[in-house]
Amino acid sequence: MLSLFTIGINELVSYFGNDIYLPALPSIIKHYHIDEFNAQLSLFLWILSCPIFQLVFGRVTLYVSKKTVIHLSNFLLVMASFACAMNPEYNIFLCLRFIQGISVAAITTCGYALIYEKFGTDEGSRLIAFLSSITVMGPALGPPLGSLILSFSNWQGIFYALATMALISSIMTIFALREFPDDTHNTSHESLTPGKSRFLFFAFVFISCQVFIPLILWICESAIIMMLANHYTESEYGLTMLVIFSSYAVGAITISQLAKYAHSFYLLHILFPLYCIGCILMIYFHDMHTRLIILCYLMFLSPLITNRLGRYVVMFRIYNLNTTLGIYSFSISVAAIIASGISTWFELHTLDIMASIFLANIVTALTLFIIITASRHRTLLILSR
User: Fold this and answer.
1) Angle at CA of residue 205, ends 99 and 306, nearest 5°
2) Domain spans of the chain, in order of start
3) What's the CATH code, domain 2-383?
4) Per-residue pLDDT reduced to its tens digit, 80-108
């Protein structure tokens, strides 16, 4: 369990590459004399690097050790973070932000594959849910930690702190990965014909993306909505983000325990409508505090839904585990890019518009899920156990 905790810390620090940086956006805008579009572009490039390297790692690990990939990506995170703090030109800064995202791709592709290979599909899915309760603290702890650093330092201090944390987690990971077996190249163990398995795999990947987009959209828009539009201070923003993403962590811990007893098939039929109701309530109420409470509720439900969907994705894997997880992670990251792109190129900046987007995504996911379950009832019911 200590080795799993270390992998979770490694992923948490990787996500810090984006989350700890959010409170510094206003300061960076002033420092480089740029507009909001160019500031958010630095978030977009970090997110963009994830899917690109998830596909790359999905293929590279057929020839190179997954542990080697993780160690190399950690090294790049440390070096890029130190370089960001040295006040380069903004174009160079954007390139370094792109490099920082590589570490997330390594963990979500290679690290998760190691966990599934050691513990199997069911236990691995439950343990990854537990890890999510650690890694989601990136958006929960990142903003308040960044705000704390800004209170006695400048924005460059955030990147020095990130580089230090990345160095420590990298050293810890070197020892933690010794407990995992050498690379294995699992092939798919399909319970259906390849054509049906392929269809269900991509269907559940698509549904997972619809649930994931609201999470990323909120991360990208939260600083502008709260600090610029609603005049929250840096400390108030950091504390609010801590509460919201702590709700996500509680949801991740809940599903790691609930997965032992509840069938995924029935659980998803309950969770999807509950999420829809939350989105409708967010549209109905206009008070900011009430909407933030509802957002906590939605964040609690998100990991419950995505973890059960992710279990189906692994069950229906169509390639070796490394490549399949690479495709799945790539798709999730593309969803993140879509959300980040929407945030960058469209002026949302209000919870009214965001709540409508949340509802549209979850209704799309629920509709497709109902269509699939209506025609594949028996197969999904068996795999839910």
Assistant:
1) 85
2) 2-383
3) 1.20.1250.20
4) 999 988 877 888 999 999 998 888 888 88
